[in-house]
Fold each of these.
Amino acid sequence: MSSDQAQPLQGYTVVITRAREQQSEGRRLLQSLGARVLDLPALEIGPPDSWAPLDDALGDLENFHWLIVSSANGVEAVESRLQLRGQGLMQRPESLKIAAVGRKTAQRLEELGAPADFVPPTFVADSLIDHFPTSGWGLRILLPRVQSGGRTLLAEAFGEAGSRVVEVAAYESRCPTSIPSDTLEALEKGEVDVISFSSGKTVTHTVQLLEKTLGNTCTDQLFNKPAVVSIGPQTSQRCRELLGRVDQEAAPHDLEGLVQACVQAMQRGR
């Protein structure tokens, strides 16, 4: 195998926009393929404004049929609040089933000893709705989610199917205040080949940060060269809305797929 095949991103610079605490695995995967990796943390994960709605719902778990979690952040929040009660997802009521959207979400549940009862075949919310193992009629569903900016698709779809859905804020993903200086310098010099986005919010916050730092015109110019790579359909939609295009979308819609999409974008010459 040639070095180009073993390290297809050799000589390319890739910017990753995940939350700072979630960047290490993406960095490792990209570097293993030869990429120079720069961080542009576009999310700061923290608690919601109030824990009360989540705590109230967790105190009533025996009256829910399903817990649906769509991110590892949601799993962590639920588990940490249950532990304050001397409980955990592993000790949940026998009648409560768990559905997980995404490989990492399901993996975190496994690590906690509470494997998901249902994981859709593809790692997007639409797939969970399309393949849900039972009718939604009469179900009571708990849906912990990001406080702001998340999709309401799951709640709306299950509501239309006759479920009673309780949505509660489990965490918040806020916009950081600044961009790392080495990343900003590389963007200004036109050294960045790929910018990868892992959620619609990372697109929104990246644009906000760049416009705050450089102004609207300079921000538009910065995106002329780099390939814009998205993790999935909703992120791609946000890219088109704010950046005017998306050059490659991950398949499957997870971190490994996102890394491969970066490779594909460079092989296509964007």
Amino acid sequence: MSLETVLILISIGIAAGILSGLFGVGGGIIIVPSLLGVYAFTHFDSPYIVHIAIATSLFTIIFTSLSSAHKHFGHGNVEWKAALYIGLSSAVTVFLFSKIAILLPGEILKQTFSVVLIIVALKMLFDKKGKHDDDAADKKPEVFKPWLCLGIGALSGAIAAFSGLGGGVFVIPLMHYLMKVPIKKAIGTSSAAILITAVAGVLSYFINSPAGANSIPYSFGMVDTLSALPIIAASIPFARVGVYLNRKTHHYLLTKLFAVFIIIVSLKLIFF
């Protein structure tokens, strides 16, 4: 692996770490398309290239979300009971749906990933909530219902299996709108739940890895370990930077800019 490639992977880790801490999204939203770009840059090709990118993304998310959740917990923004219900439910569905995902052609996964991102981006772009208020202004009581957490977790697990996203892009708005959880606590809780989801996803991709899928040197199942290590090394400290920005920054403008970025990335995946 060249120095240039390592620096690119470190840059991916920095971006993924900041986004994980800031938005509670795990970082897969950056890692999967970026890894596909790295593989194109290094001329690596495989019929399982998208699957490898997804599995590697989930592997890095384990460490990024752990760093992020630990920092959010220190600020009192993790609801552990909800995180456990959501995480365990998502772990079951990500394990089951990963079996299906491995059987699908990479192009179908890429299209699915892109459509999911566009839907999320449009929701973020046109959502007016949070423009003039913050968490302190959200005075509605939180509604903790185990069945609701299980449903949210099941949905996020399916999304994680097919797209490599940690599921936070769905967990956070659902917790906020359905359970009345303040946005910053939803982000912190999502970071904790994503940790469980990512572990289950990696195990599933490892157990169900088809013959020839681990053609990369030093790979772990379908996880590209050599590419994952620089991303992890950078994402762990920068996840904590993201949490700091989460506490200090009003998210409205950042959310809109991030939504535009997601749409650009998604369109690139669909048409190029």
